[in-house]
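Q: What structure does this chain adopt?
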Amino acid sequence: MPIRNAALPDAPDILRIYAPFVTDTYVSFETEVPSIEEFTTRMENTMKSYPYLVYELDHKIVGYAYGSKHRERDAYKYSADMSVYVDPDYYRRGIGRALYTELARLLGELGIYTAFASITQPNEKSVGLHKAVGFTEVGVYHNVGYKFDTWLDVMLMEKPLREYD
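A:
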């Protein structure tokens, strides 16, 4: 299978995918690309508690996905956020869907009951991917971000990962 757990040496390849989402799009609310050191530290901290996956084709990382803490308060411990990024040269090949499917499975095994995703609007491709893997819209935060001289909305979506007991 082309999906595997990420490792810290993957950070430069993962950052290569992420950087254009920072510099050229509204997708990420970051306004400056993190240094490789900062990005590696973020990966390391995430991997202590959540899955971090990469998708490889021909020995090249072309997408990645990871889980993260949804909120700080203890009562949120059974929820997580999910994020996925795919190299635009590899869109429409099922990579995002495959990564999210595996990530959801792993998060469920870790005891996570509900996953959330936040999607800058408009972004029909991302909303379509999330709906295709079982997310539903919860609501929209209006004018919550400001980037490239534009006020931006963010759609919140959710997906149950296991039976609520």
